[in-house]
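Teaching note: in complex prediction, the entire set of molecules is handled at once rather than each chain in isolation. The prompt given to students was simply: 'Predict the structure of this complex.' The entities are:
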Amino acid sequence: KAGVTQTPRYLIKTRGQQVTLSCSPISGHRSVSWYQQTPGQGLQFLFEYFSETQRNKGNFPGRFSGRQFSNSRSEMNVSTLELGDSALYLCASRAWTGPLPGANVLTFGAGSRLTVL
Amino acid sequence: GENVEQHPSTLSVQEGDSAVIKCTYSDSASNYFPWYKQELGKRPQLIIDIRSNVGEKKDQRIAVTLNKTAKHFSLHITETQPEDSAVYFCAASKNKLVFGAGTILRVKS
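The expected output is the structure of the full assembly:
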């Protein structure tokens, strides 16, 4: 089955602009999480959506927002871009939490690399 | 909230030697501990995971151990090979998956 698909793969923006990134999860996966990856900072959790509701949130400013649609596809938006927002944004999907093996396994997309000039 | 610390940040080993990466977590309620491998330019991929009701798990050359009392868990790679060179991330989860900062493993041939 198809993996996690993220679009666009690369984009360049300037300070003050906004950006929207898209993520299509694995078929049947209802949870989508977003992570920011920068050198030396590892994978920083942004938020997680399940059934169109934000279930968990990381420690990012309100400029970072997201949503999930009824087909489980998710978008994240960053407004008023800053230079420090330059990063690889990774989306990951999972079935959801629970005791079943594999329910918690995150499968990552290839990421969207954002450069802010 | 949960905090995960990972050490070392870089690790160089000779091919055939063993490599050990250690992580500590802060939330005693965390119950799921996966390890992800990220090769250069690629996405992170799960290599092994362990739940809080298990102390050790092995899969061929890799193993993970968990000490719930001390709140730390470790990844062990035996007989390392050049293709093991990558960034390894540990993570801990109760409701959300929190990752460590990563370990760059270099296997020298």
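Point out the following to students. The interface with chain A takes residues 1, 6, 32, 34, 36, 42-46, 49, 89, 91, 93, 95-102 of chain B (CB under 8 Å). Chain B has a mean pLDDT of 95.
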